[in-house]
Every structure is written in C-alpha cells, then in structure tokens.
Structures
1.
Amino acid sequence: MWIGELANATGTTTKTLRFYESEGLMPIPPRTSSGYRDYPSDTVQRIDFIKRGQAAGLTLAQIGEILHIRDGGNTPCAHVQSLLSGRLKELDDQIADLLILRETVGSLHSASLRAEPAACAPNQVCQYI
Amino acid sequence: MWIGELANATGTTTKTLRFYESEGLMPIPPRTSSGYRDYPSDTVQRIDFIKRGQAAGLTLAQIGEILHIRDGGNTPCAHVQSLLSGRLKELDDQIADLLILRETVGSLHSASLRAEPAACAPNQVCQYI
DNA sequence: CTCAACGTTCCAGTAGGGTGGAAGGTCAAG
DNA sequence: CTTGACCTTCCACCCTACTGGAACGTTGAG
C-alpha cells in the first residue's frame, strides 16, 4: 500500500507518516521502481500502536523506544512497565500541581469579582495578581 | 539601576529581561550615555508582577495585555477578571482530562504489571498499550 | 495526450519561554 | 594601564509534533 492509502487507513496524513519515518518510528519501507513507498499492510497496526501510545500520553521518542525493542526481536514488557509507571507519576504530580494552581487562581478570580477599579493602588499593576 | 542589578533583585537573568523587553512587556528604559539600560527602581514591582502572573498560569502575552492596559492609564480589573475566569475554565478542563488519562494509564500500568512476555502476541507491538 | 490526483524531496515555520554564544564596548579597582 | 566583570547587539538553538509550500516526477482514467 502506498503512503496515502496508509494515511487514510489510519486517520493520519502522508506528512505525518513521512515525519514518523524521519523520526525513526517507521521501518524503512521498500520502494516501487518509481520511488514510491510501498508499505506492507501490517504497517497499519504499527501506526495504530503509535496512536494508542500517544493517547496514553507517551512521547514519540518513548513510543519509538518500545518499537525499537520490539523490532530488535525482544519483548518490551519491562520497558513498557517502567514508561507507564513514570507516566503515572508525572500525571499524579501534574494533577496535584494543577489542583493547587486551581485553588490559587480560584481565589484570585473571586477577589477580582469584588474589584473596585477606584481602589486600584497607583503604585502597582493589579492588586488581584 | 542597571540590568544586572535588576536581574539580581528579581531573581531573573539579564537575558530574560532583554527578552521581556523584546516581547513588549517592559517599558523602554532610558539609557546611560554609554548605552546601558538604566531602570527606575520601581521596575522591580513590574517584574514581580510578571512572575506572579506566570505563577497563576497566565502566558506572557496575557500578562502583557494587563500591563498595556495599566500603561495606558486604565484599570485592568475587567480584563483581569476575564483572563482569570478563562484560566479557571482551562484549568478545570485540563484537570478533568488528566484525571481521565490517569485512569487509562493506571489500568494499562496495572495490566503491564501482570505481563508475561511469553504471552506477547507476535503480530502486535505490545498488548498493554 | 492530457489532467487530476497521487507521489517525491527539501526547507521553513508554528507555539512558548527562554538560553547560548560570538564579537565587541564600558566601568571600576588595583 | 590592565584586568575582570559588566554591558551591548544579533543570530541561532532548545523542545514537541507536526504543517505548509515549492518544485518536480508518476499513475491511471477519459
């Protein structure tokens, strides 16, 4: 299958697929005599995997690591475990940070709703931030 | 005060202050005869405001809007209110998205802890993603 | 044969908030 | 007068995941 067909089958674009290749996420496909990329049909699974990895918040670089382990004939289970637990920690940290920030911004916002422009101190930019 | 002193007083760097100037967040300071930026001492308050705005998750562009309103002699209260309520909504959405993602990644991670590499299906990359 | 719809490469740009470095001028202490 | 710590400008680069466009070759239907 050519690149456009693969893009259609996976809901991406030819641009993106060439980008993935340049980033080392795609195995180098054979080319037709005229130079067109000619993908085996199971490439669809690989792209779907990349999309699921992204949906789990992994970066393309991390997804690439898993792919490389698999391409090397090994099982990436251990690496996947460690990536997922790292991701989990990041998410927990990020959520905790955002909850604190939400509190802060919430208070500022409440205060700003009671704002009286006339009470604006002339020597500062804004008393609510 | 020169740029290095201002940087020290506010916990930033001279690089950053020049960057803020290029982004239009700083009023253009007078220069000494040799071309050095010579800031009035109340510039410290302005930098502190920028840092508080960043801590509230506002972008430099948004902080710049507030600063411009203030520089124009007006009270930015109404704008600050709308920025903060927008930010609050973004935070709520972001937190909700992250909580869903955390669920997903948590399940994947739990499943991966029970991984048996031998059970790895040969036609897919990893069954846990 | 023509024409649209494909494909190819390569280069540049996006957002956001800076950072690094080169090449050069200035200030103040010793 | 020298030295080191300042200051100046300008240009490029970091990160991530693409996207746009130019310039050109290929395929397949009418």
Note: Residues 13, 15-16, 19, 23, 32, 34-36, 54, 59-61 of chain A lie near DNA strand D (CB under 10 Å from a C1').
2.
Amino acid sequence: MAHKEAKQRRPSIHDVASRAGVSAATVSKVMAGVTTVKSENAQRVFDAVEHLGYRVDPLASDMRRAKRRIIGAIMPEFESEFFGQMVTELEGLAEQRGYTLVAASSRESEAREKEVLARMHDWRVAGVVLAPVRNEHGPAAAFMKANGMTGVLIDRVLSDDAFDTVSADSAAASAEVATMLVGMGHRHILVIGLAEQAATVRARLDGFRAQALALDPLVRIDVILSEVSVDPLRSSLRDYFGKGERPTAVYSLLLKGTLVALSEFRRRGWHCPNDISLVGFDDAEWMQVTWPAIAAVVQPVRQIATEAMNLLFARIEGEEGPPTARLEPCRVLMRESVGLPGGGPHSGGGDRQ
Amino acid sequence: MAHKEAKQRRPSIHDVASRAGVSAATVSKVMAGVTTVKSENAQRVFDAVEHLGYRVDPLASDMRRAKRRIIGAIMPEFESEFFGQMVTELEGLAEQRGYTLVAASSRESEAREKEVLARMHDWRVAGVVLAPVRNEHGPAAAFMKANGMTGVLIDRVLSDDAFDTVSADSAAASAEVATMLVGMGHRHILVIGLAEQAATVRARLDGFRAQALALDPLVRIDVILSEVSVDPLRSSLRDYFGKGERPTAVYSLLLKGTLVALSEFRRRGWHCPNDISLVGFDDAEWMQVTWPAIAAVVQPVRQIATEAMNLLFARIEGEEGPPTARLEPCRVLMRESVGLPGGGPHSGGGDRQ
DNA sequence: CAACTGCGAAAAATCGATTTACTCATTTCG
DNA sequence: CGAAATGAGTAAATCGATTTTTCGCAGTTG
C-alpha cells in the first residue's frame, strides 16, 4: 500500500480531501465518525485514507481545544517497582480513553516537581496525576491550584481541599502488621522511616502504634525517623543497635528502609527471623526468592491507578463537588522474615524454614 | 504577579504583543533570542511577558516545524531498575536540549511495540530511542526504516544497517565472568536465559562459552534457554535439577533468570555459595543487602543513555554516514554468591561468610 | 534629486486539524 | 403552493505559534 511515501511529508487532511474529491471538513467528520455524511462520500474518504496511509495528527487536532488529550503523570522516581508499575497502569488507562500519557520524574525534588508541572501546564494537559515528593501541601499542588489545573494526587497524600486523592490505606495495613507482630509475642518493636513524606509515614506510624498499644499497652515501640535522605537513617540505625538496643522486630515504613535494615542486619551477622524479625512496607519481586523471604505490605497499584484515572476523567468531563479522599486496601504478606521473638539462638544456627 | 488569571484562558503571543505595542512576530523573535530587535521594544516585550506570566505553548510552537521537539522512548517495561534508570537518564538528556521525552512501554510485546511506534510517528517526534523487545530485526525497526524516522536502538541489539545501536558489551562482561568462574575452579557451569532476545542473549552466551573453553577445553557448559516467557525456564530448570544435574555454578543471562535460579535453589534448600555459585547479568539494589549478596554484571546505564542521545541528536541535526554500533563496557561485581566449587557441605551448614 | 541599501517591524502565509457559519437542494407542512 | 425545516457539504475562521514577504523610513550613493 505504501510505496513512495518513505521519507516525504506525511499526507495531511487536505491531501485526503483532494484525493477523495471532498472538503477537509468532510474528511474531519468522517474521521470523527459523524453520521451525517453521505455513505458514498464516506467511502471515498476511507479509500483515500487507506491509499495514502493517512493518520490524524494528534497535536494539530488538539490545537483547537482548550484541554488537550494528554495526561501528565509526575512520579518521584522511575527506578522502583512501585512507580514503574504505576506508570504502566496509568499509561494503559490513558490510552484506553484515547489520551496520551506523558510521564516525568521529579527525582525526589520538590523544586523539580514544580518545574515539571509548569511544563505540563505549558502543554495544556487535560489533567495531571501527581505523586508528590513530600505530601499534598507542597508547592506543586499549590501551583496546580493557582492555575486552575485539574488533577489527582496519589500515594504520599491523605486528603486535600482542592484535589481528589487516592492512596494505599497505610494505616489499616500498618495496624494489621501490628496485630500480627504483637500477636506473635513481640513486645519490643523498632519502626523506621523517612519523615519527609509526612503524610503517609505519619499514617503508617500512627496506625501501627495505635493498634499495637491497643493490644498491649506495655509494648515498647521505638521510632527512628530520618529527615530527607536515606543515609542519616542508616547511621541512626547503626547508633541505635550500637547502643545495645535489641528489639525483636523491625517494621520499615518504606522500601528503602527495608534495604537499610537488611544491610545493617548483615553487618551485625543477624539473621531473620531467628535473631530479629522484619516487615517492610512495599513489596518487591525479589522479596520472595531471597532467604529468608521478606514479609511485606503490598500496595494495590492497579486499584490506585484505576481509581485515580476514574476520578481524574470525571473532573475533566466537568464533574463538580467536593474532593474525595480514597484509601485502597493493602495486602499484608507474612513471609519467613517474621517469626516468634527469640525464635532461635542469637547470631547462631541456620535461618532455614 | 499573577492575580486574576486563575482559571482563564492563558495569555497567547498576541496578548503579549498588544500589551507591548508590537506585533506577534516581534514577540516571537524576542522569545527566540533574535538580536535584531530594538532594545527598547525587547524590554517592552519582556515586561509584558513578566506581567502576563506568558510562556510559549510548545505544541503550537512545534506545529510549523517538520520535526517537533519531542523525543520518543520505547522500553520493553518500566518495572525494572534498569529501564527505570534508563528513562530517567534519557529524560534528563532530552530536557537539557530543550526537548520533551515521551516514554512508552511496549510491555514485552512486539505487536504493541509497533503500535506505540506508529503513535510516536503520528506525533512527528524528532527521534526515537527504541529498546526493542526482541532485537534489531523486529517489526518496529522495520517500521522506522519504512517511514524514514530517525532513531537509535539500544540494549537488546548488536548492530543494524539503518540505525545506530548502543548496548552493553555483554560478550566482554560474560567473558570476564567466565574467567572468574573457571579461574576459581568451576568445571561444570549452567547458563540460563530467555532466547527470544536473540541479539544479546546470543552475545552473552557466546562470550561466556568462548572464554570458558579457551581457558579449559574440558569445562562442561550446560545451557537452558527458554522461549518467550519465564515460566518455561522455571520448569526446565526444575527438570534439569530433578535429573540429578549438579553444576557448581550458574550464570544467568538476565535478571529474571537470576530470580528464577534463586527461587529454585530455595525450593531445594541449596545455599550460595556453599552448595552452588550464582552470577547474574544485571545488577539491582537489593542484591547487595541479601544474604548472601548476589554477584552481578552491572550495565553502564548512564553511558548507554548518553551515547544514544548523542548519536540521536547528531542524526536529527542531519549527520550522514553509515550507522555505528557502540558497545559500552560493563562492570562485574563479584559478591558472596560466588565461591570455590565444593566450598561447603551440600545442603548443610550455614551460608555465612 | 532620484535611486539604492538596510534595518526593524508589521502583515500575511503556514502548520494540520476542528468548528462555525453559510449555501444550495430537497422535504415537510400549514 | 409557498414557507419553513432538514440534509449534506463547503468556505472560512480558529487554535498559537513561526517564518516569509512586504513595507516604511532613514541614510547613502551616483
């Protein structure tokens, strides 16, 4: 079908129009599926389209409308399974509705987050799915508000007075973790996390603590929250263990913390679960193949993505009303890294099941 | 500065023009940094831009030029560290040159890969960075060729007669792995991988085998290559071990294979490195915190991205000449998962260092 | 003093669609 | 039978820039 059009200009709607012997407006209508076109003309258009290999230029098509058929997605990073899956899901959902997803990474920087958002605004995107670096009160959300953009906030958010929010039900999941750990007899538990992401970390911590204390007021819960980056967390943790503290279980409020905990256990020669138990928020593929397999809270990526897109498109189509704050339930996967406290000789024996 | 323009139409170049008392063409020139504008007029334009909060609409700006300032990136998936890092790097490099990166996932499907590419073509992207699902001979590359698109192929490619290619020097890295394993005394090694991605897997396998046999012609190298998906690989591996085969080391040609190997070791209660050694192609953050830490070949993501973008932009700017095929050197990280053959009692003892 | 050169800016064409307004026919109905 | 309604299609305006062409005016030159 396509012979000579190798590297030439692509056919435009006018090329199709003249070949079909109709006006460009008619071609536009046929492409849009309008029914008020004589079927003979429609056929001529189809033939011309086929012959020329014509496809609508989505950018040109978007020029006339105020909201372009583009959805912006801003994630704190692309390197983790969680956000990778999220982008994949969002992309699919956008495509389903004939939109293109343009994803950008804020690289864990609020300054960059705002810059990227401004660029999305320049592009006149119809809507934005923003996973803020910190929480819903950052400069990016303020920018969206000030410029009347439509958007949904996800992941590191709880609720907002201007935008719909969707996130994992961190508090409930954390409570479930607490139930399990306390139920197994753990009475001295260390919780670690990064405090920057105030919204979610707070929820996870509070959810965990409330439930643990409800079950047994005498449970001792230590907390190490580092600001900003992961390195201070590592050294705080090192100090903590160095002082001789020996909790029987550690609950990490985020993936990076789980890695830090594991590497500290390593340094000290501690094995899970005999020497210490470990549960992490956020699952990853490798966690089920290591020895021991690492217990983790699985976030409902697909549900979050689906709900976010539903809400976003409803707003794009003009839905009014106060913003909603959705929490999607997590699953807690108890794996071998969790055991009874004092389940084995410290720093000895094997860690096999 | 911005008071009332909350949700109204954004200011266009004409709004700026009339406020500055000049024509739209003059505004355009000022924004483009053309020097043939009287400085007084330029100042008036700057003031108007400032006052109105004007920003160029990149989409409208791109309409007139044949090549739009957009780079398309097509990755087989977004869920892995490798491609996540790759997209992040590519995004940064595109931005540096004033381009927008639009990334899409082909979800390991050649059909989808071509579809996505066609959509990029509709967008009139200036260039494409394509990481093919299989290799350089797939339908997507053919589509690019047939439509005169400019692009670079990366990762699962060796060389091409139409496009520049950039990938990790898999063969050299594999040879290095062979040197280490054979040097440590391993004489029965299993290599596992997925055959679909012919280009790279072939290179990795050949590089490994050639070097191993060069060092000792009596080395026994078994190979399990599964087609298409990871599940057949798992069952082949299970059969292989089930038949009583006991290589002293396994070299996985790709990340998913490493996970499969680990989980099979798990099932059988084998520990690295005492029961069996393991090296995987492709590094991941978790590999250094598990017990044992997993030896891996680290791909030079940044170099691949940088080189790919350099080549791509050179072509976009009209550079002629035959396509080049670059190989970027990898690093091999020997970690605890590799030890001397028969380094410990089988299925017994600890796996500590 | 008429013709020429240049500079800087404005007017108009362009990119590739969509959408509005308008023109003919042909029906429908009072 | 004539007026209004409907149907099918087109020309032109529009979206927001960029780029080409044209123009006015000042200063030179023959």
Note: The two ends of chain A are 63 Å apart (CA to CA).
